What does this fold into?
Amino acid sequence: MQQPFQHPDIIAYSQLLAASFTQLTGQHLLPAGPDFAQRLYEAPFVLISHGMQPDPVFCYANLAAQQLWQMDWAAFTAMPSRLSAEPMLQAERDQLLATAHRQGYVENFAGIRIAKNGQRFKIMDNVLWNVMDEAGVQHGQACIIRRWLAC
It folds into this structure.
């Protein structure tokens, strides 16, 4: 069975995630090099991204994200991203997404999210950014989560 990071579309999207992150923040997700998509997929930080649908659906979730939310790739990438937060916290999340959309990115925010089994966790030391290609077309938004704690 092919791993997600081996699919040509995911390899290209991994590069788009990294390039847009660097362009907006001046930081790097990981050093460039061989097997970048695999290294990003297996990175020790959480990396998630959703598309541009009216009710955006996750299109990327690395292994750390899958473990944190307790879902495999297929389940994660079929889930509307709003469901990553409890209903009472979705308005706060939506406001954060709107701010990132206007500014390009938002960093150093925290929030409470919920795993598939109902376990709540706090995300910290995050960067949320617009995933843009070289032509300036937005493909979604992504978030790197460097720290999290069970609630």
